[in-house]
């Protein structure tokens, strides 16, 4: 067969040397740079300026409101119906609602004893308290230690159950969802969630449950995190400064103005009826806590933030742990925004002001995530 000439396959205009090709590419670049690339770069600059302006406005707004809150706003105990649940000799513990405590775990060798002990030490009638340890650990040795710790507390009369799954489908959201499916949960009105490194004080439930009992429109009571290792290193100190703004300003303002603020995933108490009405836990993103909070908020439920109610916790002290945490916190809201933006826009349940506050909040998150996209923590 006769050899096919390259000239039959390659157009004559492209049969040039490598230097000529480089020259042609340079010419093409010069031709498209002005009419195409430059306008795109200009558009990018305008978008960044708009984002910076929005961030500046948001900071100014938050600063003004938090000053007003500190000077003039009443404490949550004054803004809402609040009355401590009293012990009754005649009724016994029946006037206390049944509360479910969920402690999701994953290979928590260092902190499992502390977290389980703190939950079992809550000053709440033992017959009105159900504790679930949702263990998704992959290490058999750790699973055995956690189970033995649960058995130790159960032998003391604490209503604690050790729960495992065959797989880790849905990760934390899947574990929480599976825990709510148990038959005994139908007797529980509220569920408190504590990650494995969180240690609530004994009076945690007595200071938070009355908000839910006396105010049927409240779905969530969120407590503040207090970091016991904030001075461990420079990394933990920087994290504390960043998160202090979130708790001291962002969530305080959101709660005081009845605007949207997200569930932090732990150290909070949910009304189980609100979780069910919102569609339950979903594992479609890595921020299952914000997902549930948005869906509940769109259905008209209110949230309360208690800055004076603090729960001890620990900050990531290694860059690897910090990077993993930031990946979830940064990329998760972007996926959630993509999945829920149309639902937020169409929502007609909430009031005009609160609904638009949620829209602004999510647009603000989306803007921040564009800026964070270049950060390596967003790479899988």
From TrEMBL:
One of its GO terms (biological process) is cell wall organization. It catalyses: GDP-mannose + (glucomannan)n = GDP + (glucomannan)n+1. Keywords: Cell wall biogenesis/degradation, Glycosyltransferase, Golgi apparatus, Membrane, Transferase, Transmembrane, Transmembrane helix. It is a multi-pass membrane protein. It is an enzyme of class 2 (transferase). The keyword Nucleotide-binding does not apply. Its EC number is 2.4.1.32. SUPFAM superfamilies: Nucleotide-diphospho-sugar transferases (SSF53448). Residues 190-346 form the Glycosyltransferase 2-like domain. The keyword Cell wall biogenesis/degradation applies. One of its GO terms (cellular component) is Golgi membrane. It is found in: Golgi apparatus membrane. Transmembrane segments: none annotated. GO terms for molecular function: glucomannan 4-beta-mannosyltransferase activity; mannan synthase activity. InterPro entries: Glyco_trans_2-like (IPR001173), Nucleotide-diphossugar_trans (IPR029044). Its main location: Golgi. PANTHER family: GLUCOMANNAN 4-BETA-MANNOSYLTRANSFERASE 2, GLUCOMANNAN 4-BETA-MANNOSYLTRANSFERASE 9. Belongs to the glycosyltransferase 2 family. Plant cellulose synthase-like A subfamily. This is glucomannan 4-beta-mannosyltransferase. It comes from Gossypium raimondii.
């Amino acid at each position: 067969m006769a050899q096919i000439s390259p000239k039959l396959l390659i157009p004559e205009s492209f049969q040039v040397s490598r230097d000529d090709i480089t020259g042609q590419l340079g010419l093409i670049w010069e031709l498209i740079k002005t009419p195409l690339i430059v306008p795109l770069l200009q558009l990018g600059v305008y978008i960044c300026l708009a984002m910076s302006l929005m961030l500046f406005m948001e900071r100014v707004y938050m600063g003004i409101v938090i000053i007003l809150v500190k000077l003039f706003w009443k404490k949550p105990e004054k803004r809402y119906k609040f009355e401590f649940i009293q012990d009754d000799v005649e009724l016994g513990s029946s006037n206390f609602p049944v509360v479910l405590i969920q402690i999701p775990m994953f290979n928590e060798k260092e902190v499992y004893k502390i977290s389980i002990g703190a939950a079992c030490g809550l000053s709440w009638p033992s017959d009105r308290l159900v504790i679930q340890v949702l263990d998704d650990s992959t290490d058999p040795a750790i699973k055995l230690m956690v189970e033995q710790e649960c058995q130790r507390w159960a032998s003391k009369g604490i209503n604690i159950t050790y729960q495992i799954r065959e797989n880790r489908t849905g990760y934390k959201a899947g574990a929480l969802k599976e825990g709510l499916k148990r038959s005994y949960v139908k007797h529980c009105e509220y569920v408190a969630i504590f990650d494995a490194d969180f240690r609530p004080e004994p009076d945690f439930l007595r200071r938070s449950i009355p908000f839910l009992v006396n105010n049927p429109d409240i779905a969530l009571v969120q407590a503040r995190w207090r970091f016991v290792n904030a001075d461990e290193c420079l990394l933990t100190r920087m994290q504390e400064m960043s998160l202090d703004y979130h708790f001291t300003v962002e969530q305080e303002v959101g709660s005081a103005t009845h605007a949207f603020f997200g569930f932090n995933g732990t150290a909070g108490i949910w009304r189980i009826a609100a979780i069910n009405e919102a569609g339950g836990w979903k594992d479609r993103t890595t921020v299952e806590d914000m997902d549930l909070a948005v869906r509940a908020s769109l259905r008209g439920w209110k949230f309360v933030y208690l800055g004076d109610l603090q729960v001890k916790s620990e900050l990531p002290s290694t860059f690897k742990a910090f990077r993993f945490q930031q990946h979830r916190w940064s990329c998760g809201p972007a996926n959630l925004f993509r999945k829920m933006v149309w639902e937020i826009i169409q929502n007609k349940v909430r009031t005009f002001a609160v609904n638009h506050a949620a829209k602004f909040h999510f647009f603000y998150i989306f803007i921040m995530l564009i800026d964070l996209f270049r950060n390596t923590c967003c790479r899988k």
